[in-house]
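Page header: ASSEMBLY MODEL / two components / 332 residues total.
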Amino acid sequence: MTERSRSGCPINLSLEVLGDSWSLLVLRDMIFGGRRHFRELLNGSEEGIASNILASRLRNLVETGLLTRQPDPTHRQKVIYSLTAQAIDLVPVLAHLGAWGTRWLPVSAELSIRSRLLADGGPALWQRFMAELRAEHLGVPADPSPGGQPVRERLQAAYPAVLSDG
Amino acid sequence: MTERSRSGCPINLSLEVLGDSWSLLVLRDMIFGGRRHFRELLNGSEEGIASNILASRLRNLVETGLLTRQPDPTHRQKVIYSLTAQAIDLVPVLAHLGAWGTRWLPVSAELSIRSRLLADGGPALWQRFMAELRAEHLGVPADPSPGGQPVRERLQAAYPAVLSDG
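Prediction written out in full:
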């Protein structure tokens, strides 16, 4: 990658790897939405990602080492995508980006509740969430559970609660 | 903006406002490089941004409220760009993105030293840096100085030190 990089600045290299904004949205849907199959990512997309864009972004994310791709052991003919450690390490970046958007942009209540909970939880919650993602995607044994509901479930449970308020 | 947004998700809206990756690099050069004129941003670009791309990104950043544009009081016929509070609030996002790139990508030593110092300094350093940027760009009176070298000078001083090691 170094040869064709615009510069060795860490911010520039990060933006080159994350590519256009669709790539980060695909990672967001895998991280926060728990989606791991092409159809789930396509049909569940709030932004209406096109099938060809999704396919090219998934291919690119695998090539740059942010995702891996395996046959799904539970579904013949299906492929399952997994986050790598490098992708899971984006959780604090996404938490800060979501918090910034929530402060400054006209976000919708139902789609910003997860960002608010994540920002409120701070680094301790992000670390716990990352440990859960490592257990799920990398098979890393989880730490002895601190008890309570897993972080993603907690974030997702807040979503219908906001909808029913509206 | 809401009408043509892909969704009201704070991560999506943030990515829509920040646009393509050049926009964030222009903000990076203003925030960390202290550049405020078109020529400085063009000639100092590590990534070799093209003049027409820079012009369109500056126009877009003004339209979306991340920059303001005024005649430069010290140079006739020159325009000076200022960061808005919304842009200054991106410092923690850029700090996390730079730290992620430094951990996972083949960054160059001289361009990653600022990211390392910023990551090591943590939220306390980012807050101090943001207060300095607000004083410089928004005319907000600085807090009684905690003493010592301003953060940007400290980050920039590390850069030639790494070069002379090389």
